[in-house]
Amino acid sequence: MKIQQITGTQVMIPYAPPVGPYIGRGRGGGTLGGHALIVKVETDSGLTGWGEGTGRFETDPNTVLAGHHAADMENALALMEQAGLGRGPMSGIEMALWDVVGKHAGLPVCQLMGGVVREEVDFCACMGLKAPSESAATAQEYIDRWGFRFLKTKAGDDVNQDLAIAEAIQGAIGDTAFLRPDANSGYSPEEAEPMLRKLKDLGIRYYEDPCSTEHLEALVRFRREIGMCILVNMGVGTSDSVRSLLVNEAADMLMPDTPAAGGLLRVKKVAAVAEAYDVPCLMHCSHDLGLKTAAITHIAASTPNFSGPNDTCYHGLTDDVLTEPLKFENGKIRVPMGPGLGVEVDEAKVERYRSA
């Protein structure tokens, strides 16, 4: 089963309220939708695989991979890296290879990657920066409409703003869901520490990237002295990038992502390294359009250490690139167990939402 043709299409699908516009730290008008590189891999067996990455092909992947066996994942990743392809587009190609290999074998990707340890995968619903009252209303809608039990709000622009948002959300949701603010390393340790103490008093138990991982000693202190569970995404790429975090016990959870790592296989390697230190993993959100959302479920289904609620904005899309949308029930998605990723791409949608 040799690779014949690889094509990539830039796609953007708008967000509907309450997810859109999604305003992150320092982003002004915010993100109006999910953006992705949708990758199609055609093989000489007549089977086609689909993947979702980010960015653009800096190098034509056909000159690198045409004629190579679709199942040779490690070799494909090495060749793409040597040729100068970024990890974002690489991740889309690698995902498509898993999809086509699964279709060829008649097995879901999770069974190719270790087998099924869970059939449903939990998700954490992301929201951008909003006024405190609007944040509280959005949090309640996330719970009532989709059943989410884990919520994430952006943070990192202003301590007082973050505290007001957290207080409003906590007042609205009580103990029905867990809130995890994400500052994207926006604060210094000196700013973060008193804020985290106040958030702990509000009942917040989880915080993502309060400050840069350059300040390992501060992250350790936040965990041990304040008792805040620290999640780290910023700087988490391939498995070699997480060693200092794990050795120094600076994180309670790691948040790899396929575009940052370069593919599903490399995300699983991050999880394997973290497992040796008894640190669980969950997936960071890159505004998925359906294919990656399905891929997340396969990684989590086949990886015991991938046990946390994975980020998502998928619930906010006005559409996706699939023939049948994935559905949240009680904040979870059941792993699609058809061959490959278990989902089918609607090529008309890919063309409809093609972006420049």
Please render the helix and strand layout as text.
Layout: E1 3-14, E2 33-43, E3 48-53, H1 62-65, H2 73-83, H3 87-105, H4 109-112, E4 120-127, H5 132-146, E5 150-154, H6 159-173, E6 178-182, H7 189-202, E7 206-208, H8 216-226, E8 229-232, H9 243-247, E9 253-254, H10 258-261, H11 264-276, H12 291-302, E10 310-312, E11 332-334, H13 347-352
Parallel strand pairs: 4-5, 4-10, 5-6, 7-8, 8-9
Antiparallel strand pairs: 1-2, 2-3, 4-11
In short:
The protein is of the alpha/beta class and about 350 residues long. It has helices at about 60-65, 75-85, 85-105, 110, 130-145, 160-175, 190-200, 215-225, 245, 260, 265-275, 290-300, 345-350; strands at about 5-15, 35-45, 50-55, 120-125, 150-155, 180, 205-210, 230, 255, 310, 330-335.
Summarize the structure in words.
The chain has 13 helices and eleven strands. The chain folds into two domains: 3-110 and 347-352, Enolase-like, N-terminal domain (Enolase-like, domain 1); 112-334, Enolase-like C-terminal domain (TIM Barrel, Alpha-Beta Barrel), CATH 3.20.20. It is an alpha/beta fold and 356 residues long. Strands 4, 5, 6, 10 and 11 form a five-stranded mixed sheet that branches. The mean pLDDT is 96. Helix 2 packs antiparallel against helix 3 (87-105). It has helices spanning 62-65, 73-83, 87-105, 109-112, 132-146, 159-173, 189-202, 216-226, 243-247, 258-261, 264-276, 291-302, 347-352, and strands spanning 3-14, 33-43, 48-53, 120-127, 150-154, 178-182, 206-208, 229-232, 253-254, 310-312, 332-334. The protein is 37% helix and 17% strand.
